[in-house]
Amino acid sequence: MEMTYQSRLKDNFTENLFEAILLLQNKEECYRFFEDLCTIAEIKAMGQRLAVARMLDQDFTYTEIAEATGASTATISRVKKCLFFGADGYRLVLQRQQAQQKD
User: Which of 2, 14, 86, 90 could form a disulfide with 53 if both were Cys (CB 3.0 to 4.6 A apart)?
Assistant: First the structure.
């Protein structure tokens, strides 16, 4: 599958990072790599953003999302902007997770 999306983030460092991530084969390897790569706060923030995206996709209110995730309204707003006007990365993952849950 040829990549058609042209990211503004693309450079040699980012290419190498994403190639490394694609080499991970299971959750344990992900935990090991990301614990070495990121701070605990960075990992938790990424997980929180994905939870916010999922709840936005399911039409939860900002108040409900903030109470359930602890995310600020600024974070919720930023995720919403990405979810609806971004690169479709959240949508891709949410759709795949939903399909996986149906299996």
Answer: 90
